[in-house]
Amino acid sequence: MSLTAAQFQALSGATDAQIADLERFRVLLTEANQVMNLVGPSTLPDYWSRHVLDSWQLIDHAPDALTWADLGAGAGVPGVVLAIFLKGRPGAHVHLIDSLGKRCRFLEQVKTELDLPATVINGRAEEQAITVDVVTARAVAPMDKLLGYAQPYMDRGAQGLFLKGEKAPDELKSARLSWHFKAQLHPSRLTDGRGHVVQVRGLRRAR
To answer: What's the superkingdom here (predicted)?
Structure first.
């Protein structure tokens, strides 16, 4: 499903100010993607569906969540999109965490220009002592490895909401060799039928 800005606005109920922020983010992402590998270039023409809708749908699964940690956040997806929609809500904050300095510089530029309720952290995801409502990630690592990155946040009470592709069921099966957890697979709002939002709670290492 390919969307225009107007179609996404009608679907999501986004305000004009949010659409303006998302459009500016599109320009910044397109410019930065010419000099570093943030997203697949072929996905940019479908920005409003592949990146914005894909990220925005997470709010459906945690509508009351105010604090988020986006692991491996270099492209700003989903973290920047979430911060745009959370802007103006008291107590809202998104931690954008990435281990590469050049990606963090891009995120800092976006955060500053759009005046987002966010903190950019240049470091390893699993080493951050942050308490949040939700920990999320997209296109970072297979589920068994991703859960290792997410464990410190989930130990402090976060739930996991991870954007995954068609291999999500197989990744969960492999992850259960190393982890105990409760998981729900939600179909993605993208209509190609392959994507999933993976909701994880009760994470602990298998003995």
So the answer is: Bacteria
Query: Is 150 annotated among the ligand-binding residues?
Result: no
What mean pLDDT comes out for the span 111-122?
A: 98
Q: What is the CATH number of the domain that holds 58?
A: 3.40.50.150
Average pLDDT over residues 178-184: 97
d(CA 186, CA 199): 8
| 125 labeled binding residue | yes
Residue 126 is assigned to a ligand binding site: yes
72 known member of a binding site? yes
d(C-alpha 159, C-alpha 134), whole Å: 5
Question: What is the structure's pLDDT at 94?
Answer: 98
The whole domain housing 76 covers 5-205
